Structure formats: structure tokens, C-alpha cells
Amino acid sequence: MQRCIPDSARGLRHPQTIVLNQTTPHSNIWTLFQFFAIVESMNNQDITLAHVSVSEMDNNCYLLCIGKEALLIDAADNPQALLDLAAENNVSITAVLSTHSHWDHLRALPQILEQTGAKHFAPQPDAADINAPVDVLLTDSDVLPFAGHHFPVHILHGHTTGGAAIAVPIGENMHLFVGDSLFPGGIGKTKNHQDFIQLLDDVSTKLFQKYPDDTVVHPGHGKSTTLGIERPHLEEWRARGW
């Protein structure tokens, strides 16, 4: 069954078939702080990933489960489904990350925070437009601390004023949770060409230049992809302007 990504989230106007091309060279530039944060995370308790899609807009909600705790990424809708997902994985939601300020990713947020007492993380540029109090404001190159792990934070400008992506080591791969900033076949929807260039530049320098091709990308809607699948198309996206 094909899953639809709403036009409000992504910049694509037509479906595309993405072909896995030969891996292209990339720059693996790290700050020491981010590097040791990831090494620390990889040496700590295992992280498992659970996922549910909610709402008529196919919003992805992710649970990062560590021991008996879980970090929920985007309380988009259907709070009971999110609580049920936690129960099925024998964890309690103790933290929530809102990746950006668009309403379709926040519909369950007030109720989830009230029912769980979870700590709420959100990107500083978008925080004023989020419909619930934020406990921890995230800025670029921060780390998000959770259950003994520290996940690098990247602020991506363009789809909104500034959304957050986090990098999480799960199993043998790095995983990026990117909100609506990156999808299979293109970046997220922007209001104008200046915002498009800003978002493409941010995605290029903060994600593609820092992480290897086998990094898994988890978007806010629809299916996951990898940086390796998308990397050969960056200049194509820039040339087409969306």
C-alpha cells in the first residue's frame, strides 16, 4: 500500500522512483563534542525503535526505548495510540521531542505531556509557535540528553523557522529523525526560493556532510530512506528548485 506524504510537508510535486546509485564520497566532519557524545551513546544501554503512523496525514511518531523509558518524537495525534505503543514496548514516555512547530505534529502534545509528565524538548527557533510549554530549548550543535545517552542536535531552517533533527545510534547504523526537513526524493516544502536554498544548504552541510551513506533517515511522514539513496540527487534538487 502506497503511503502519501502531504504536500504541506514536502516539496515534491510529482511521485519519483528513487534508484540506489553507487555510493558517492562524503565528508565525515565531526566536532569532538558530537563524536564523543555518540561514542558514549553506543557504549550505553541498547536503544530500540518503535513506530506508529497516526492521523489522516500519515504522521510518523517514533519511540526511542531505553530500558523502561522512552523518548517520543512528535506527539502528532491520537494520544491513546501513542500510550498504547509505549505499553506494548513495556516503557513509559518520560521525554518528548517536538521536531518543529507545524500543527499536524502537535495535536496530541498537550495531552501526552499532561498524562505522562514527560520532559518536553523543542528547537529554540520554533518554540514560540508550539502549543505546549517547552522544558528544554535546543540549539544547533546541542546534544539532547536522555537515559544516559546524548544525541547530537541539528537545527534545520527553511520548512519552518528552525526545526530539529537528532542523530541516534541504533544497532549498527546511525539514524536521523528529521521531522519534515528531508524525505525520500527531496527536502521539505518551503515558502519561497530563499527558504528552499537555506533548507537544502542546511541538510547538505549538517546531515549529508557529517553522516555516512548507511545512515537511516526517518521523516515526519511516509517511508524512511538512507542518505546513500538520496545523496546522488542533491544537485538535481538544487537545479529544479524544489
From TrEMBL:
Signal peptide: none annotated. Residues 58-221 form the Metallo-beta-lactamase domain. Pfam families: Lactamase_B. InterPro entries: MBL_Glyoxalase_II (IPR051453), Metallo-B-lactamas (IPR001279), RibonucZ/Hydroxyglut_hydro (IPR036866). This is MBL fold metallo-hydrolase. SMART domains: Lactamase_B (SM00849). CDD domains: metallo-hydrolase-like_MBL-fold (cd06262). It comes from the Bacteria.
